[in-house]
Specification:
Radius of gyration: 23 Å
Strand order of the largest sheet: 1-2
């Protein structure tokens, strides 16, 4: 019957993937999630039979039934990713978790809930951050709160309350670490830009460069510059969320997530130096690194510390 559980997990992921698409599209532009699905081209309402995950896209050949406008490949991609990741997370929960934590296995282990919530929030956040360069509070803050209560509940169920402190400490310390790194790098970049601008304005006659770190708004009032962070505050909230989930298992998993994310972002950053490419954000790479850490973190840990 194991195959049946995988089908249930994948089907559940496909259904939720359709909802994730709604979140990814509507949240950044301020639309409510409860409104009826519509075509982004003509505004026609989408019938229920045209809203079946993956199947409707194939049946409609990727076009709106009303206006024949192209449906973005993003929709089936998110749905397929969600289904695949939910099935993979179920595999992880029955094969990896019991062995790593030394607990009894079975068709269901409570850590599966941590994994599914983790995957769900990461999918939504990664695509929104990629498209808009933001990590919405309406997603990450409730996600972090729900993750904390899940960690508390599962830890109590396991009669291992130390994992609560371990998860909380990992999340807080990781967010503080990223804040300090972002502040240091951001300050260095800001100073370099200011120096470059100063050098370029040294010889402009009476209109000499001002070293005053403020600017005048439309009313003539002075505004202070924003904190010179290389990372956004959304990344720090994402770090807290990541730390809560991965820290439940082991603080070491955060290292796997960060290293993986940094390596991937470096590779993509080099590729995106091609003129005309859009600016990249760090959130999607942290998300991919986190998934790698969730699935394979136990193997890396055993490889480094148990052999």
């Amino acid at each position: 019957m194991t195959w049946f559980y995988y089908l249930v997990a994948a089907g559940f992921g496909l259904i939720l993937g359709s909802f994730f698409n709604v979140c990814i599209y509507r949240i950044p532009i301020g639309m409510t999630l409860g409104d009826r699905s519509i075509c982004p081209h003509c505004g026609a309402g989408v019938k229920w039979y045209d809203n079946v995950p993956l199947a409707s896209f194939v049946a409609l050949r990727g076009k709106c039934r009303s206006c024949k406008g192209r449906i973005s490949w993003r929709y089936p991609l998110v749905e397929a990713l969600s289904g695949a990741l939910f099935a993979s997370t179920y595999w992880w929960s029955i094969n990896v978790v019991p062995d790593y934590l030394g607990v009894e296995g079975g068709p269901f282990v409570p850590e599966l809930l941590i994994g599914l919530l983790f995957i769900s929030i990461l999918l939504i956040v990664a695509f929104i951050d990629y498209d808009h360069g933001i990590i919405p509070n309406v997603v990450i803050i409730p996600g972090a709160a729900a993750m904390f209560f899940l960690v508390v509940g599962v830890s109590i169920y396991r009669e291992d309350p130390i994992r609560i402190a371990q998860a909380a400490a990992t999340g807080i310390l990781f967010a503080v670490f990223l804040f300090l790194i972002g502040l240091i790098v951001g300050t260095a970049v800001l100073k370099g830009a200011e120096q470059e601008e100063a050098d370029s304005k040294e010889d402009v006659g009476p209109f000499r460069y001002s070293e005053k770190h403020c600017k005048d708004d439309d009313n003539g009032e002075e505004e202070e510059d924003e904190l010179p962070l290389a990372l956004g505050f959304g990344d720090l909230k994402l770090a807290l969320f990541m730390g809560l989930a991965l820290g439940y298992f082991n603080w070491f998993f955060i290292l796997v997530a960060v290293i993986t994310g940094c390596v991937l972002s470096l590779i993509i950053a080099i590729i995106y130096q091609i003129p005309g490419r859009k600016k990249i954000t760090f959130g999607p790479f942290l998300a991919v690194g986190s998934i790698v850490a969730l699935y394979w973190g136990p193997y890396f840990y055993q490889l480094l510390f148990h052999y």
